[in-house]
Amino acid sequence: MERLIDEIEQRVRPGQRTLIAISGHGAAGKSTLAERLRERLGDVNLFHTDPYITDSQLRKQTLLTYEHDGIPHHYKMTACHPSAHHLLSLERDVRMIREGIGFYTIDVPYLERTWIDPEKPITIVEGMSVAFLDLTSFDQSIYLYTDGETEFRRRANRDIQERGMELDYLRASHDERRLQYELFMHPYRHHFQTIVNTSGDIIQIEKTAHEER
């Protein structure tokens, strides 16, 4: 990951307003990269976008129908679907950052609100919702993903140990979530300047901004 952080840091111009987008599916390593990058870059804004994901109770009431390998699937909407995000609100807030307007982030039970300080030139915007934005507002954009088994292992370590979830339920929900990810979210990775595969806990940079020059 140090090489990735080095590349991001090298593209930051000191003193200039800079927006860095980090996205990917759950357990791909987004938060880890964002925290490590904040440690490296110093006093920056870190903007988590999970509050822009539609409430889980509403998503449970939204049944999606989709097909994979000729087999129809019917399952609740997961956060891997673009419609599960309040994108207009997030786009407004990203625009405010770009224009140097400060604001408090959304205050939710699982995440305390923070002040996005317009005096800080660098803002890291991190979360699944970022994948579905127009990335032209950002100076750098990084997308992380893993294979399905790595994602499941990371989810199991968190959801079973910390949240008491049953293994069988986690596996069933993971399989449908992963399928929705492959169908509805994974194609968006191509809009990002940098694509990183973290499968098996090995960092593989598949595409960098240097390749676009």
From TrEMBL:
Against Gene3D superfamilies, the record matches this protein to: P-loop containing nucleotide triphosphate hydrolases
Is the Transferase keyword given for this protein?
yes
Question: One Pfam family for this entry, by name?
Answer: PRK
MF GO annotations: kinase activity
Query: Which superkingdom does the taxonomy of this entry point to?
Result: Bacteria
Phosphoribulokinase/uridine kinase domain ranges (all copies): 19-196
Which UniProt keywords are given for this protein, alphabetically ordered?
Kinase, Transferase
The protein's name in its UniProt record = Uridine kinase
Q: What is the lineage of its organism?
A: Bacteria, Bacillati, Bacillota, Bacilli, Bacillales
